[in-house]
Fold this sequence. Notes:
This protein is mostly helical. The protein has helices at residues 5-56, 68-89, 94-101, 103-111, 117-133, 137-140, 144-171, 174-195, 197-200, 204-229, 232-239, 242-254, 260-289.
Amino acid sequence: MTSRFPVLLPVGGLLIALISIQCGAALAKSLFPVLGALGTTAVRLVLGAILLAVILKAWRAKLTADNWPPLLLYGVALGVMNIAFYMAILTLPLGIAAAIQFLGPLTVAVVYSRRGVDFAWAALAALGLLLLTQLDNAQDGLDTTGVLWALTAAIGWALYIVFGQKAGAVHGVQTSALGMLIGAAIALPFGLAEAAPVLVRPDLLPIALAVAVLSSAIPFSLEMSALRKLPARTFGTLMSLEPVIGAFVGLLFLQELLTLTQWLAIICIVVASIGTSLSASAALADEGNA
């Protein structure tokens, strides 16, 4: 039993991180009636940026004219991703928005893949998206604008990964804090007017701070720890569970009931993501043995 602890602890930590992110999104939704989606995004990113800047000691980063552009693009992608996702959950159930957004990293994995099987996983993900978007909007509560926002969040997440790898190679652990600061600067002009009530209503600040902690500080710390201790295959597989966790969190805390077809669509996307993650790990193993 003792030998299992080194694996069980980071696995448990990563699952807590995924739950934390979705609980943060659910709590953020409770602020929408007061702050709006843009105001909530701005507050969450600003507070999250402050927290990460302190935790990761962002002031230690050495910025130059040469290494600044990838970081800027990374921060812009982060800001767009967060704005689009919060705009998506304004009209979409949390689990559905999370599933559509997850098409971003899945697409990146397929594009960089050298294995034909990954195109089969991509087809399965496309089937999941088709099942979601072909539903009767009036009957199942799907909003076309919300779907488009979720797809925009997926594009933002894909760019976040691409530019994050380039920026991370230069700035290391400070990349996340610096990117969050840039993302906050992107979101703040759009949400400033809606976010103003936080300044005059002290009762809103603890909720906004909780959103930032749940969505940024806790998951980042736990994910970084898990990434150092878990194989890439295990890490990627567990991360793929995020849409399902989002659906359950939405059901428990927001009473967002999904149809059987919607659950099937989410499962298609999750299975495709797991398959792509396992395939990528196998490809890396093959390269290492070559």
